[in-house]
Amino acid sequence: MATGGGEKRAELLRRITEEGGFAFVASAEKAAAGDVRAAEAAREMAWEQLHSAPRDEVGAAWRDAYALACLHVAAPRGAGGGGDDDRRAALRALDMGLIMGGGLLRAELEDAIARVVADRRGGDCEAAAAAGDVERWKEGIAGDGDLADVLKLLPVKSLSRKKIERRSCIPLEAFIRDYFIREAPVILSGCIDHWPARTKWKDIKYLERIAGDRTIPVEVGKNYACTEWKQELITFSQFLERMWSSDSANLTYVAQHPLFDQIKELRGDITVPEYCSAGGGELQSINAWFGPHGTLTPLHHDLHHNLFAQVLGRKYFRLYPASVSVELYPQTETILSNTSQHGGSMLKGHMTLKLNWMPKAKVDLDNFDETEFPKAADLEFMDGILEEDELWSRSFVLLGCGFNFCNYL
């Protein structure tokens, strides 16, 4: 253990002791000496603390404690020479530390993951994707579908009003002058065709090899406003398997997750467009949306300006001006107060970069209930379809929604 790392851990255990976590500290000290049972016990105690109160009320020390316990649990399993099951268990423990833990030991978690991944690849392991999945993947990526048929799946009045302006890749100065300052949306084409993701992510074997054994948080359900919506923690391989599911009530997708901070290899497949510097401040976040057909974003507003990149597939967007927020019936619950009750999308928002991998598929989109929500029926909006290799910049003063559709299942 490096001296710096040892000091961090000692200070953390002192903080946990001050918060009454004597049992955790005792188990953590045994775990550091190689006691596997003690490591599991410490992780369980920290997990209980994480779920003892709402997320923003859980102390940072216990999040760091959970990360420490995950490092202890992974250590014997991730040691060189272990089998595939041990390596997968080690990766899951370390990923859970990244996802649920604090930031104190993040560098140690990332270093441990890098060692486990290097050991796996050193064994020349092949991607586990079955031949049938590979073929279905290729068909889904290649299948453009008839756009006329696709348009029939969209809500009533779609593409009948003002369309979002579409431009070829333009200089940053023109983007700032003509769109960012004016707070106007625009679709930009030809700006990400150089991204490695544009070709690499078409290969399911590549995704399996790079990320298959990594644990990620996913959302299950048509959208987060549905009563059946839930979150799960599964491996990326399990997520790819669910892409073929025909169960529309069990749609599984990755959303609002800093996937590229967690899986560094995927981060190397993209570059941040210069347009993200338009606001003059720091890039707030880079998030990824991975999902199958049938997923949609309810009408909502975001907290930042967004630059949305469509890597694969296509997505329909609808935007409303912020001035009509009341007519779009925002939810009354505090946690969903940025979301419309009738499920359509409200957007508000520093610049973030959003990435969308969405093979071409249809979406089961409910029409607005004009009886229940009469004010929303005749509101003016602008909309458009974002195709592969296009960027969409949306202003923080606009409200909008997104629907994904494909044809490969």
Automatic annotation (TrEMBL):
Pfam families named in the record: ARM_KDM8_N (PF24472), Cupin_8 (PF13621)
Top-level taxonomic group: Eukaryota
Location relative to the cell: Nucleus
Domain called Cupin-like: residue spans: 173-382
Residue intervals of the DM8 domain: 7-122
Keyword DNA repair on entry: no
Keywords, sorted A to Z: Dioxygenase, Iron, Metal-binding, Nucleus, Oxidoreductase
Any coiled-coil regions, as ranges: none
Cofactor(s) demanded: Fe(2+)
InterPro entries for the chain: ARM_KDM8_N, Cupin_8
Principal location class: nucleus
The keyword Oxidoreductase belongs to this UniProt entry's keyword annotation: yes
Gene Ontology terms: cellular component: nucleus
MF term (GO), any: dioxygenase activity
Family: Belongs to the JARID1 histone demethylase family.
PANTHER family the record matches: HYPOXIA-INDUCIBLE FACTOR 1 ALPHA INHIBITOR-RELATED, OS08G0508500 PROTEIN
Protein name: JmjC domain-containing protein
Gene source species: Panicum virgatum
